[in-house]
UniProtKB/TrEMBL annotation, chain B:
Pfam family name, one: Hpt
One Gene Ontology cellular component annotation held by this UniProt entry: cytosol
UniProt GO molecular function: histidine phosphotransfer kinase activity; protein histidine kinase binding
UniProt keyword terms in alphabetical order: Acetylation, Cytokinin signaling pathway, Cytoplasm, Nucleus, Phosphoprotein, Two-component regulatory system
Gene source species: Arachis hypogaea
Domain notes: Histidine-containing phosphotransfer domain (HPt) contains an active histidine that mediates the phosphotransfer.
InterPro entries: AHP1-5/YPD1 (IPR045871), HPT_dom_sf (IPR036641), Sig_transdc_His_kin_Hpt_dom (IPR008207)
Protein name per the record: Histidine-containing phosphotransfer protein
One annotated GO biological process: cytokinin-activated signaling pathway
Domain HPt residues, every copy: 38-143
PANTHER family: HISTIDINE-CONTAINING PHOSPHOTRANSFER PROTEIN 5 (PTHR28242:SF13), PHOSPHORELAY INTERMEDIATE PROTEIN YPD1 (PTHR28242)
Length: 1027, 151
């Protein structure tokens, strides 16, 4: 029970301790890393430690330890971090030892305390036991004594005061026998009368026996058996005698014995008659029974004496002596029998009248507990002193309670301490691990940086010689070569270009991997970008006879803010893939707002598979975005249900009628370097990372990419992207000169009506889209007859007619009929839309009629505008070439532009200026960043600036920053696109001045030194609309 | 000497210079930049390059002679030289410059000195070759022929 109690207490205490322990440990843990992050935090850390110490060591040494801890740690931390760590660790170990020792001390002191308490308790119980016994013994003794006293009065009354005496031996014996219960402690009572020597003879005669002496008896104690009264000698002559005349039956043998002759008795008798009180003898062996006993003696007086009578008066008045024999041994034993716990206590009774030699009255010498208690006994005789000694029979039991509680406490405390210690150790270990991992991480990062650096360097290093190779091949092409040689050279050049683009892709992938890819946020025109992309692929598509078309919904804003380059990269990649795998049919790019598409899902019925651009079946576009999260989230409208005015969600689809992707390969097409199967790369080239890069880029534009592909029917890739609305009606847009090239001729054709004759609604829609961009009103009809009726009967005069090639070719008679009939009215201009030049020529040669203008698809607003201008203005001039040479367009872009070239190196400056002049630009050269700032302080007439980056005094970045500041300060009303002069960095080192770095300082781009025509064109075309 | 022969000689010489790496594609690009509006463009640029080279080489020699050597200063000169050599297409000079810059970065004085000597060598070789080239061109022009483009 007590054990349970102790354990329960221990658990409770343990729990109470545990909760703050947990708190503190977690707190320490939280702070731990802070501490380790830097030596600066050490103050903090040691404070923390101080607290911890305070908690653990709530003993006297606490303050000292704290001070020491703080001081020592503080200093050491600052000096040697590692040494500090080791020190701290060893201190934790020492602390742990101190803690254990501390708790050992606590628990042992508790043990001592508890065991001493137990002893005390035992002592108390012994004292109470002892006192109880003593009191009872005393009480019983007193009862007996009183009775004997009463008997003395009886004798005085009935023996001495009556003549003749009313009592004889027989009466006395009977009376005493019957009243023995009143005197439980006496074994016998006897009465001795006082006889003077003079009266001896008469007395002896009267009694019939002689007075016998007792001392011999005392000297030679005899056994009960041979005890014979007759053997006693008669008493010698004395002054007076006190022979026993009456005795209780039990001690009848003492009758006639002179009590005064016994030494003990004599003393007793004399004292009794002097004091008039009951007097006790020292314990002695009783006659006959030979047991220890004492005799109580009362004197019997002739008359009643006053309480202040002198001893002499008392002696004179003495008549006799009444004695009671107390058999102490048996009496005490009897008494103890009646009491509880008699077994456990050993009782000894001593007569201690003589202090130096106490006489044992009762008790054996059995060994017991060494501890005993002494109680004084008062038997009514002031002369005699008695004591009772009590002791426990058993040795004190083991203090189990104390042992359990202290051991339990120690165990709990040590456990808690160990938990703490283990936690701290664990923290040290995790700290080590952390440091180690930080080290590894650093190394890994370094390796990663090295990798990117390596990639960039290597790719740069490859690019440079590749440019040499390409340049030489270019030159070789211009020499006299036979057909085979030319073929070889062209192949080599193609491979070289592929290699360069591959390197660029790898660079992109490396950038994405290292998270360095950042998107720009500039204003751009989506439609213009698509026109560019079309231009890029038009040659290829025409060569293959694949129809290429772009349709952008009217809902899409003119100006968007985002990263045009990356957007273009995605589109280019998807279209590149499509054109690679498509041999017939079409490739169709559509751009809508997500909201439109989502609504159309509900509104439009499933369109038939025949209704496509080229008439070939296509994969169902809807299935390509099935996986998009944004669509599937909350119903069909998803997260696009509330279009915000700022954000523009575009959905772009690239649909082709190519070979499609085999089903088993569809799952891994977005994995880098995965291709459908290895033979593809041999057949079509490519690295297989294009799609993975596209996916990353789409992800960066907060969009998703998906596809559907049916083998031998085609694939449709769809992606969404989020841009910001950059149209003028929305208030903000980043300052950037905008490439607004498609609007060059829009006003010219305002109000013109056009007719498109095309049996396929989708294709007609594409044509209408491009014409509408030129501000031309468009009517759509599906065949020539309808067209004719519309022209002749229509309300508004139709000045331009576009006829799809297949309509024109279907029946030449209808065509000529159509032409002839249109001539009657104000003849509209006729344009034939063809897929590729070669396919049309054959059929149109023999038409004989005034040749309608042929427009080769893909349609592009700018190209349409030029063609229309020529056709309307100058008249028919046959089909125009719409494929421009890059250097020619550079000419277009740069002609007449005023350009500032900043380079400290005169050679570089001259070469750059020469190159720009070659393209018709008006070049001013200066040699320092400072001059550049001065020159470009608005207002100025420069259209652009090419700036070297590494210059003494003020480098290109700094100069740009200043120029931008100037522009910003000049530009009060927020319309700063006018003042913003494009600044392009010139750099020889791709890695050193990456695009991002240039952009950060306010530059608009960079070109590598020495100039490469293509790159120059790409950068410059972003700022200058072709003139 | 007749013009055709001269022209062939010029072509061969130029091809040899390209082959041996004295010049690279950039030089041909330069020649393309030369037209009626700037007939002496290449010569102008190259002369500029010569002046620049001599100045920079002197600067480098002086900078390397100082105690202690200010490698940053040397590196700046080499960087400049690398830029101008890249612009005219002096490939070998440019390559030596790249090595030179590495030595500057590691503060290897011995390497730098060696590179400087190499640079001087390369430069004089290049200069001789180019001067010969220009002489040939002059002769052709004097003989009334046209300078063949470098395809």
């Amino acid at each position: 029970m007590s054990l349970l109690h102790v354990v329960g207490f221990g658990l409770k205490v343990g729990h109470l301790l545990w909760v703050p322990c947990c708190l503190i440990v977690s707190f320490i843990y939280l702070n731990w890393f802070n501490c380790n992050l830097g030596i600066n935090h050490n103050h903090n850390c040691s404070n923390n430690n101080k607290w911890k110490m305070g908690f653990l060591g709530d003993y006297d040494g606490k303050v000292w330890l704290n001070n020491w801890w703080e001081k020592n740690l503080g200093n050491t931390c600052k000096q040697y971090y590692y040494k500090y760590k080791m020190l701290r660790r060893s201190w934790w170990r020492k602390l742990w030892h101190a803690y254990v020792v501390f708790w050992i001390v606590i628990s042992s002191s508790r043990f001592l305390h508890m065991s001493s308490e137990a002893t005390e308790k035992r002592k108390e119980s012994l004292v109470s036991l002892c006192d109880e016994r003593a009191r009872m013994l005393q009480d019983q003794f007193n009862v007996s004594m009183n009775h004997i006293q009463a008997m003395s009065i009886l004798i005085s009354t009935f023996h001495h005061a009556m003549d003749p005496s009313a009592i004889d031996q027989k009466t006395f014996a009977r009376y005493t026998e019957r009243t023995a219960f009143e005197r439980p402690l006496t074994s016998g009572v006897a009465y001795a009368v006082r006889v003077l020597h003079s009266e001896r003879e008469q007395f002896e005669k009267q009694q019939g026996w002689t007075i016998k002496r007792m001392d011999t008896l005392e000297q030679n104690p005899v056994q009960e058996d041979d005890f014979a009264l007759e053997a006693l000698e008669p008493s010698p002559i004395q002054e007076e005698y006190a022979p026993v005349i009456f005795a209780q039956e039990t001690i009848k043998h003492v009758i006639s014995v002179d009590v005064l002759s016994g030494k003990e008795d004599q003393e007793n008798v004399l004292r009794a008659r002097e004091s008039g009180k009951g007097v006790l003898t020292a314990p002695f062996r009783l006659l006959k029974t030979n047991r220890l006993g004492v005799i109580l003696t009362f004197a019997v007086y002739k008359k009643e004496l006053p309480s202040n009578a002198t001893p002499d008066e008392r002696i004179q008045a003495t008549d006799g002596y009444l004695g009671g024999v107390f058999d102490i041994e048996s009496l005490v034993e009897k008494l103890l029998q009646q009491l509880a716990s008699k077994q456990s206590v050993i009782v000894n009774v001593y007569d201690t009248t003589n202090h130096t030699d106490p006489i044992a009255m009762y008790g054996s010498d059995v060994l017991g507990d060494e501890f005993y208690h002494v109680s004084t006994l008062n038997f009514g005789d002031p002369f005699r002193k008695h004591e009772m000694h009590c002791r426990f029979k058993q040795k004190p039991p083991w203090p189990w309670e104390a042992i359990h509680s202290s051991v339990g406490m120690l165990v709990i405390a040590v456990l808690i301490g160990y938990i703490l210690y283990a936690t701290v150790n664990r923290m040290f270990i995790s700290e080590d691990n952390y440091n180690e991992q930080m080290e590894l991480k650093k190394r890994a990062q370094a390796a990663d940086v090295a990798k990117s650096q390596f990639l960039a360097t290597v790719s740069h290093e490859i690019r440079t010689p590749m440019n040499g190779v390409l340049g030489m091949l270019n030159m070789l092409m211009d020499t006299d070569l036979d057909v085979t040689q030319q073929e070889y050279v062209r192949t080599a050049q193609g491979s070289g270009k592929a290699l360069v683009s591959l390197i660029n892709e790898v660079l992109d992938q490396a950038k994405i991997d290292s998270g360095k890819l950042e998107l720009e946020a500039v204003v751009f025109d989506l439609r213009a970008i698509l026109d560019d992309v079309l231009l890029l692929f038009s040659e290829k598509s025409q060569g293959k006879g694949v129809e290429l078309a772009v349709y952008v919904s009217d809902e899409v804003p003119e100006q968007l803010i985002g990263d045009p380059g990356r957007f273009r990269q995605i589109i280019t990649n998807l279209m590149g893939n499509s054109i690679k795998f498509t041999e017939k049919g079409h490739i169709f790019v559509t751009i809508h707002l997500v909201e439109e598409v989502v609504h159309s899902i509900e509104v439009e019925p499933q369109s038939t598979s025949k209704d496509t651009l080229s008439g070939y079946p296509v994969a169902d576009i809807r299935r390509s975005w099935e996986g998009f999260k944004a669509f599937s989230q909350e119903g069909p409208l998803g997260s696009f249900s509330s279009p915000s005015s700022e954000l523009v969600n575009l959905i772009v689809s690239v649909e082709d009628t190519g070979v499609g992707i085999p089903l088993e390969a569809q799952s891994r097409i977005f994995t880098p370097f995965m291709q459908v199967d290895p033979s593809i790369s041999r057949k079509h080239g490519g690295t297989g990372i294009g799609l993975s890069i596209s996916k990353c880029l789409v992800g960066r534009m907060n969009g998703e990419i998906g596809f559907v592909s049916i083998p031998n029917i085609g694939s449709t890739f769809t992606f969404t992207a989020v841009f910001t609305n950059g149209s003028p009606n929305s208030k903000e847009g980043r300052s950037q000169p905008i490439n607004n090239q498609p609007h060059l001729a829009s006003s010219e054709f305002h109000g013109t009506n056009a007719l498109v004759i095309d049996p396929r609604p989708i294709r007609a829609k594409v044509s209408r889209y491009h014409l509408q961009r030129l501000d031309i009103r468009v009517e759509l009809v599906s065949d020539l007859d309808q067209g004719l009726s519309l022209i002749t009967n229509g309300n508004s005069p139709i000045s331009i007619v576009f006829i799809e090639q297949e309509v024109w070719d279907r029946d030449s008679s209808i065509s000529s009929h159509f032409v002839n009939n249109t001539r009657k009215v104000d003849p509209p201009k006729l344009f034939i839309l063809v897929n590729s030049n070669s396919s049309f020529r054959a059929s149109s040669v023999n038409s004989g009629d005034p040749f309608p203008v042929v427009i080769t698809k893909p349609l592009k607003a700018s190209m349409l505008a030029v063609t229309l201008q020529r056709a309307m203005g100058v008249g028919n001039r046959g089909n125009t070439r719409n494929v421009e040479l890059p250097s020619l367009s550079l000419h277009h872009l740069l002609r007449g532009r005023r350009i500032l070239v900043v380079d400290d190196n005169s050679v570089n400056r001259t070469v750059a200026a020469g190159a720009l002049k070659k393209y018709g630009a008006d070049v001013v050269c200066i040699s320092s960043g400072k001059d550049a700032v001065a020159k470009l302080n608005p207002p100025h007439q420069f259209d652009a600036c090419f700036m070297d980056i590494q210059m003494p005094e003020m480098d290109g970045f700094e100069a740009t920053r200043r120029i931008r500041e100037l522009e910003a300060s000049m530009d009060g009303d927020g319309n700063n696109s006018k003042l913003h002069v494009p600044i392009l960095a010139m750099t020889a080192d791709v890695m050193q001045a990456t695009n991002e770095e240039c952009l950060k300082t306010g530059m608009d781009g960079y070109v590598s030194k020495p100039f490469e025509a293509e790159q120059l064109y790409r950068e410059v075309s972003r700022f200058f609309p072709p003139s | 000497m007749d013009v055709l022969q001269l022209q062939r000689k010029l072509r061969e010489h130029q091809a040899a210079m390209l082959r041996e790496g004295f010049l690279d594609d950039q030089f041909s690009q330069l020649q393309k930049l030369q037209d009626e509006s700037s007939p002496d463009f290449v010569i102008e640029v190259v002369k500029m390059f010569f002046d620049d080279s001599e100045k920079l080489l002197n600067n480098m020699t002086r900078a390397l002679g100082q105690v202690p050597v200010d490698f940053k200063q040397v590196d700046a000169h080499v960087h400049q030289y690398k830029g101008s050599s890249a612009s005219v297409g002096a490939a070998r000079v440019k390559n030596v410059c790249a090595t030179f810059r590495n030595f500057c970065e590691t503060q290897n004085l011995e390497g730098c000195v060696r590179c400087l000597q190499q640079l001087q060598n390369e430069y004089s070789l290049l200069k001789n070759n180019l001067q010969y080239l220009f002489r040939l061109q002059e002769q052709i022009q004097a003989a009334g022929g046209s300078i063949p483009t470098i395809e």
